[in-house]
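Reading a protein record of the kind used here takes only a little practice. An example makes this concrete, so a full record is given next.
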Amino acid sequence: MATLHDAMLSVLTDAVSRSVGQQAATLKGEKRSGLRVHARTGLPCPVCGDTVREVSFADKSFQYCPTCQTGGRVLADRRLSRLLK
């Protein structure tokens, strides 16, 4: 639990420090600059080089690195999986 707390504190502190003094119009771009795999589907992960994947669920989607975030497990895309049954 302490490791999770430390990671969350680090991410939030970094995000706040990058946002201080920014105009409202630039905040979204600044937020994205701190994300490693957001909007990088199909590109190499900047940490390990594995391909960034995307999962769609309902009307949302997210990107992730299988190596860094799921221990090498590729997650099922719910939209496509439902059609293949």
In short: Residues 2-19 form the longest helix (18 residues). The chain is about 40% helix and 10% strand. The CA atoms of residues 3 and 9 lie 10 Å apart. The longest strand covers residues 53-57.
